[in-house]
Amino acid sequence: MDFKQLEAFVYVVKLKSFSKTAEKLYLTQPTISAHISSLEKELGVQLIVRSAKEALPSEEGKVLYEYAQDMLTLRDNALSAFQNISRNVSGTLCIAASSMPSQYVLPQMMSAFRSKYPDVSFNVIKCDSGEVVRSIVNRKAEIGMTGAVIESAKCVFEEFLDDRLVVITPNTERYRKIGEHGFTLQDLAREPFIIREPDSGTRRETERFLRSMHLDPASLHVVAQMDDPDAIKNSVSQGLGISIMSKTAAADFQRFGLIQTFDFDHVVLSRKLYLVRNQNHTLSPAAAAFLRFAKKEAAGSAQ
């Protein structure tokens, strides 16, 4: 049984008429009859006794009528509660996010969210993926965004967005020739390399990929370690070395001709971005609304 069937049944009992019920619910009389017949078939009893003048509940119908009213009331109360939550979502929401989502995903998402929930403000903690998880565990933040799954018994990770990783190089003819057919592992190993900090999701995914291709990350010719994507892009544009980062994060420097981006030879390197929450902590209305909103936005962008 479903709520539409129960609603039709309750109104037939109240109004003692199929035609009046159809008018009340803006349905056709055959639809009301079909709802009642489906209920009777499912329960194996006659619920409505039909006569030429009116429709009355059978003894079994009287029993169902009491339960059906309670179920419909409970449904209406639940809908009302959620509508009130939606209207009253307010306060400050603290989000811990790693570099890429904090700079290139969150700003647009926060703006869209506030157009729906204008009474919510944000406190964004920008840190590496490991610190994001620690912030969630220690309840410094309610929602996290990371580029890697960090082992934690207290955190729930949900896949959120796909993030493509590319090799970024200075915008020179030499690198254009190297990368015109895709970067090889040999190219990567012999060029000066700028690496992210140890807890970075980008670094974790890069090292995982290199090991899967039988290249020891320790063999890279590392000339610098940095924890900020903009600092890495600036350093690459000045010729310090090459690096691996999110294609989305690199797009602005590439657009203005400051760097170049290349895929690996015959390989597309990508990773997932994750939404993180503490499984032992009940989210505030603002955090719960933002989590639903973020997943819906991500699902829409993937279509």
From TrEMBL:
Gene3D superfamilies: 3.40.190.290, Winged helix-like DNA-binding domain superfamily/Winged helix DNA-binding domain. Residues 1-58 form the HTH lysR-type domain. Pfam families: HTH_1, LysR_substrate. InterPro entries: LysR-like_Sec_metab, LysR_HTH_N, LysR_subst-bd, WH-like_DNA-bd_sf, WH_DNA-bd_sf. The keyword RNA-binding does not apply. Keywords: DNA-binding, Transcription, Transcription regulation. One of its GO terms (molecular function) is transcription cis-regulatory region binding. Belongs to the LysR transcriptional regulatory family. This is HTH-type transcriptional regulator CysL. The lineage of its organism: Bacteria, Bacillati, Bacillota, Clostridia, Eubacteriales.
